[in-house]
Design goal:
The complex is a heterodimer. Chain A starts with a helix and ends with a helix. In chain A, helix 5 runs antiparallel to helix 6 and helix 10 crosses helix 11. Chain A has twelve helices and one strand, in the order αααβααααααααα. Chain A is globular and about 55 Å long. By secondary structure, chain A is mostly helical. By secondary structure, chain B is mostly helical. In chain B, the strands form two sheets. In chain B, strands 1-2 form a two-stranded antiparallel ribbon. In chain B, helix 3 packs across helix 17, helix 6 crosses helix 8 and helix 8 packs antiparallel against helix 9. Classes of the chains: A mainly alpha, B mainly alpha. The interface between A and B is large, with 81 and 85 residues. Strand 1 of chain A pairs parallel with strand 3 of chain B.
């Protein structure tokens, strides 16, 4: 398939399916809590409604307030295009694409945090300060995880790194990446996506002043980012190199589903951590990724 | 051969600038731009595939004939010097104009030409003695530029500290060049990897050039000098002058044999500089000090690349490939950092010019008055945080690739490449935090004091200089494939054995991806804007969770923003905090002062120098001018000598 055909196809599927994930998480939480919960497609309804609405913007904000979410959304979408889907290589695969993906996610962070700071609100300042500070440790964990995959496969390209059977450190890597997934997507125990007006949160507080289409873009971007991290986790841990394309896609879909349910269960069964202990938990994730790297190293040397 | 005439043109322009710069500012600008064009032309022609340029003259200077030489390595630095020198000249015509700085503007133009000329001389000189002469001239020119506005005490102090620190480094270089000339028998410089006995001299090189490069913990002079100098001078100091230290390290690690431990030491020093430099930057409240510390970080990044290259060269085998990748990244980062840091200092200067303060906690909301400056700073922030699709990402990506390849080979170098890659990631994330803070606290939100209310946008010349550098940041990021021959040429000049090795850096797909991302960004932003406009846009007060009248003092400040991450570095930052809480039922006031001093200077260097001063004061009591005591010294000395002869004389 030519990339001109493949990229739009992938985009339609991935971007179309991404809002399902928060819906599934909410359904799991409701189910565990004994409630009926919002429909699984709730985010689709929200996005459609927001996209039609007008915008109220702070008198202090510059055009960057609207450009920031747009930049973040494009960056996340560009990052997910770089991911391979099992045996189907990414349409743009090259040596070093994994670093481009990581830094595109950082660009997305730049866009959202810059836009949030424009309003001069203390709440948003708080959220941004937390977001960029915790990202420091999360970044270290991601680099360690990527290094371990790189050592295992001897490659620096996502398509080659995510294909083969997992090494001895798969469990550690899975635990580390899952923790990073929770932190990067601002889920419990790092953040609580339900509390909108507390001093205790990160992501939601940055979107406090956004409304209308920019808010829709932020919410959709967050869903795509969740999908990206789930895909990365599933493909890094499961051996997908040997199986045929339809089977691999089915396995990936099932894996993402399991991860999503896992996030929902964590969210139902755990309380949010005190902010003091967030760096500790992230450092644990980093250490797990680092040990996965050491195990990959030992495995390669033997 | 076009290189020679270009360099002659540059020399002519700079000489003319030194002679006539004081009186005729317009002529000076034209001459400086001519020199910049000449230097850039020479460097680019050479990097694009021209042969090395060598020029000898029979004319002796200081007993040595002049020997100039331009090769791939020095051309990289010459190109950077020309670009930033030219842009800074344009900027300074407005920023440090005769109208506002009547006393020092003319002097500043002369020293500027002198600085460019002496740096060019250092880059071209292939003779140790001449190198030292140029180095000293360059240090002195930079000192006079830093202290252009010498009426303020802080400026004078910063200047003296710079001069003293630079000369501490120069002492090492004197020793280095003298020992080198002594063992080789000539002042001529050139590749001499076969002289294995010269290897220990590398430590002198590291110390001497490390001071100039601002390597942690030798960076003590850097923050105050870069913060207190006029902004166009800060830009060339940060963008180019500290790169002369990097040039020295790259040059002599390539020409001389290095000890086995050199690569390890350089890469570890780079890691320390990268993380601690950016940690200090995050904690600052002074905008220009923040940028200065960020330079320490970027020098660290460059040295991580250089250290990896040295390890790769020592490792051999596929080390040639990943070493070459890392060096290509390091040299490209020299360019990139020069471009975006000069851009950031220019915008900081524009803010300082408009508001009269560098303290971020007094600023805020400047974007409305100064949209161009805000845009330039935002673009520079994206570049310095190494985000795609701008230039900072390309060079860090190359260094990463080199480190990842070193890790996958699982050789001995992998043990240091793993932490280096992680450190690069951590420093990048901290840089993002630092520049989100700097950019948004200064330009966004509400004005924190009255100062920003009277701000005005800078004029055409300052804006032009900023736009030029911004275009370079964008161009290098979007078309990295054009850099491939340049980087191949420069790295091959560093290590002759690397000529035939393909480093395997897919710059072409990266360029395609960057371009695609940039276009997608443009389309996405335009689409969202168009849609927002169609749906309707209303303005209202910031929704502070229902608070009716949010005030400027409720905003996050630079201190509160950086506090979370800076707290992880308390052990080295050593913040000074003075807190007086409001007391009683009718509190009359409260004070909170948070200051982040330069730890290495205040906690290490100052006590040490005070100790030395105490000892010397004590020793000085021996010399007091009383003749009687001197006679006693003499008699005692003769007695001791006599005793020594009596006791040891029998042998």
């Amino acid at each position: 398939m030519t990339p001109y055909l493949e990229v739009p196809l992938r985009l339609v599927v991935l971007l179309g399916l991404a809002p399902l994930l928060p819906g599934i998480i909410n359904k799991v939480k409701a189910w565990v809590g004994g409630r009926r919960g919002p429909p699984v497609l709730q985010l689709y309804y929200d996005l459609a409604r927001l996209w039609r609405k007008g915008v109220v913007m702070s008198t202090l904000a510059s055009p960057g307030f609207i450009a920031g979410p747009a930049v973040a959304w494009v960056a996340v979408v560009a990052a997910i295009v770089l991911l391979p889907l099992g045996p189907a290589e990414a349409p743009f695969a090259f040596r070093g694409d994994v670093l481009l993906m990581i830094y595109l996610l950082a660009l997305a962070r730049f866009g959202t945090t810059w836009a949030a700071m424009e309003t001069g609100s203390a709440f948003e300042g708080m959220g941004v300060a937390r977001e960029v500070s915790y990202a420091v440790i999360a970044e270290a964990a991601i680099i360690a995880a990527v290094l371990s995959l790189s050592v295992q496969t001897g490659s620096v390209s996502l398509s080659a790194m995510l294909a083969p059977a997992p090494g001895a450190g798969a469990v550690l890597l899975a635990a580390g990446l899952f923790t990073v997934l929770l932190a990067e997507n601002c889920r419990v125990p790092f953040d609580d996506p339900n509390t909108h007006l507390e001093l205790t949160m990160i992501h939601e507080v940055m979107a406090l002043d956004h409304s209308g289409p920019p808010l829709a873009v932020i919410l959709h971007g967050a869903a795509v980012k969740l999908l990206l991290f789930s895909l990365l986790l599933v493909e890094a841990v499961l051996p997908l190199g040997g199986v045929s394309a339809p089977v691999a896609l089915a396995i990936i879909a099932a894996g993402v589903f399991v991860v999503t349910i896992g996030v929902g269960l964590v969210e139902s069964l755990l309380a949010r951590f005190a902010f003091r202990s967030v760096p500790l938990l992230l450092t644990t994730a980093f250490l797990m990724c680092l040990f996965a790297l050491l195990m990959a190293w030992k495995g390669g040397a033997a | 051969m076009i290189v020679g005439p270009c360099i002659a043109l540059a020399a002519l322009g700079l000489a003319g600038g030194i002679v006539g710069g004081r009186r005729w500012p317009r002529v000076w600008l034209a001459l400086t731009l001519m020199a910049a064009t000449g230097g850039l032309g020479a460097a680019l022609v050479l990097l694009a595939g021209g042969a090395d340029w060598v020029w000898r003259s029979a004319l002796p200077v200081g007993g040595e004939v002049i020997h100039l030489r331009l090769d791939g390595v020095s051309a990289v630095f010459l190109a950077l010097m020309s670009v930033v020198g030219g842009a800074g000249a344009v900027y300074s015509r407005e920023y440090w104009s005769d109208r506002e700085q009547r006393r020092s503007a003319g002097r500043g133009r002369r020293w500027w030409s002198g600085l460019m000329a002496s740096m060019g001389w250092v880059l071209l000189s292939a003779n140790g003695l001449h190198f030292l002469l140029g180095w000293e001239a360059f240090t002195v020119c930079a000192f006079f530029l830093v202290t252009l506005d010498g009426r303020m005490k802080a400026v004078r102090r910063a200047g003296w500290l710079y001069l003293a620190a630079s000369h501490a480094g120069t002492v090492c270089l004197f020793a280095f060049f003298a020992l080198l000339a002594h063992s080789v028998g000539s002042w001529e410089l050139g590749p001499m990897r076969e002289h294995v006995e010269l290897a220990p001299l590398f430590w002198l090189v590291l110390a001497g050039f490390g001071v100039k490069a601002g390597l942690f913990p030798l960076h003590v002079w850097l923050p105050s000098a870069h913060a207190n100098a006029p902004s166009h001078v800060s830009a060339i100091l940060s963008g180019v002058a500290i790169k002369m230290g990097v040039y020295g390290l790259v040059r002599f690690s390539g020409w001389l044999p290095v000890p086995a431990a050199a690569g390890w030491v350089v890469i570890v020093a780079g890691m320390v500089s990268a993380v601690l430099g950016i940690a200090f930057a995050l904690a600052q409240d002074d905008l220009k000090r923040l940028l200065a510390y960020c330079s320490v970080e970027n020098i660290g990044v460059i040295l991580i690349g250089l250290g990896a290259a040295m390890l790769g060269a020592a490792h051999g085998g596929n080390g040639l490939q990943w070493g070459r990748l890392a060096l290509a990244g390091a040299l490209l980062h020299v360019w990139n950092h020069g471009a975006f840091k000069a851009l950031l200092f220019f915008s900081a200067g524009s803010v300082l010019h408009a508001t009269g303060t560098r303290e971020m906690s007094r600023l805020g909301g400047l974007w409305r008055a100064m949209p161009w400056t805000a845009g330039a700073f935002a673009l520079g922030s994206v570049a310095v945080a190494a985000l795609p699709p701008l230039n900072g990402f390309v060079s860090e990506w190359l260094i990463y690739l080199g480190l990842f390849d070193a890790v996958t080979t699982q050789g001995p170098a992998a043990a240091v490449a793993v932490p280096a890659a992680i450190v690069l990631g951590v420093a990048g994330a901290l840089a993002l935090a630092t520049f989100i803070k700097a950019g948004t606290i200064v330009f966004m939100g509400a004005a924190r004091t009255r100062r920003p209310a009277h701000a005005h946008e800078c004029g055409v010349l300052m804006r032009g200089a900023m736009c030029g550098l911004a275009a370079i940041c964008l161009g290098l990021g979007l078309a990295p494939q054009l850099l491939r021959p340049i980087l191949l040429r420069a790295t091959a000049a560093w290590h002759p054995a690397w000529g035939g090795v393909d480093p395997g850096a897919p710059l072409v797909p990266l360029g395609t991806a960057s371009l695609a991302v940039a276009m997608a960004l443009a389309v996405g932003v335009v689409l969202v804007f168009a849609h927002v406009r169609r749906n309707g846009l209303n303005r209202s007060v910031t929704w502070d969770c229902g608070y009716a009248t949010p005030g400027a003092r409720m905003q996050y400040t630079s201190g509160s923003f950086g506090d979370l991450a800076a707290r992880w570095f308390r052990w080295i930052l050593r913040p000074e905090r003075r807190l007086r809480r409001p007391r009683g039922p009718l509190p009359d006031g409260a004070v909170l002062v948070d200051r982040h001093p330069e730890t290495m200077l205040d906690r290490v260097l100052r006590p040490a120098s005070t100790g030395v001063l105490h000892v010397s004061t004590a020793v000085r009591r021996l010399q007091h001018g009383r003749l009687q005591s001197y006679i006693v010294y003499l008699v005692a000395g003769i007695a001791v000598l006599a005793l020594m002869v009596l006791l040891g004389g029998s042998q």
